[in-house]
Design brief:
- It is built from seven helices and ten strands.
- By secondary structure, the protein is an alpha/beta fold.
- The chain has a single domain, classed as Alpha-Beta Barrel (TIM Barrel), CATH 3.20.20.
- An eight-stranded parallel beta barrel has the order 1-2-4-6-7-8-9-10, surrounded by six helices. A two-stranded parallel ribbon has the order 3-5.
- α6 links the parallel β8 and β9.
- It is globular, with a radius of gyration of 15 Å.
- The protein starts with 7 loop residues before the first strand and ends in a 7-residue tail after the last strand.
- It comes from Anaerobacillus arseniciselenatis.
- Pfam families: G3P_antiterm.
- GO terms for molecular function: RNA binding; transcription antitermination factor activity, RNA binding.
């Protein structure tokens, strides 16, 4: 499974950035910050422009991060996929046939080890490794899990994108517009 060869997943922090992405050549786009009242219309707008939205479920204002919220997102909002740090959100996305992306904040070796245990349960379609500027960790996580990696967080330069991809990441998420091209 991949993003049809798309190596950069542009991530919108605002409606304005999302609107700019709708006219881009990207198929897969990420919505980071959003409000529950806007979600359904934003996802429908993206679909009407041929885009597949990956929604960061943990960053939806006005929505709790529980299984019911995840069911609402899957059944009513219907994005292409959900990104979350939460086990129940990832499992619900998988159950509903959405792309499931388990977001991991790898701060230290304890976080890494507990993440491996979490991944045994969730078995997501992708793992988003943060920060994405650790090529050796990207390589290790992919080798240990066999799950495709998306690198994200603190990626500021084109070389960091290239390094993450060389380390085995399938794609890189970034909110830096200069890296979207």
């Amino acid at each position: 499974m991949d993003f049809h060869g798309q190596k950069t997943l542009p991530a919108a922090r605002s409606i304005k950035e999302l609107e700019d992405m709708l006219d881009s050549n990207y198929t897969y786009i990420v919505l980071l910050n959003s409000h529950i009242g806007q979600l359904k219309s934003l996802v429908q707008l993206a679909k009407s422009k041929g885009k597949k939205m990956l929604l960061h479920a943990d960053l939806v204002q006005g929505l709790r991060n529980d299984e019911y919220a995840a069911q609402f997102l899957c059944q009513d909002v219907k994005p292409a996929g959900l990104i979350s740090t939460r086990k129940n959100v990832v499992l619900t996305a998988k159950k509903h046939g959405l792309i499931s992306i388990q977001r991991l904040f790898l701060l230290d070796s304890i976080a890494l080890e507990s993440s491996y245990k979490l991944l045994e349960t969730t078995k997501p379609d992708y793992i988003e490794v943060l920060p994405g500027v650790m090529p050796h960790i990207i390589k290790e996580v992919y080798e240990k899990t066999g799950i495709p990696i998306v690198a994200g967080g603190l990626i500021r330069e084109k070389k960091e994108v290239e390094d993450a991809l060389k380390a085995g990441a399938s794609a890189v998420t970034t909110s830096r517009r200069e890296l979207w091209t």
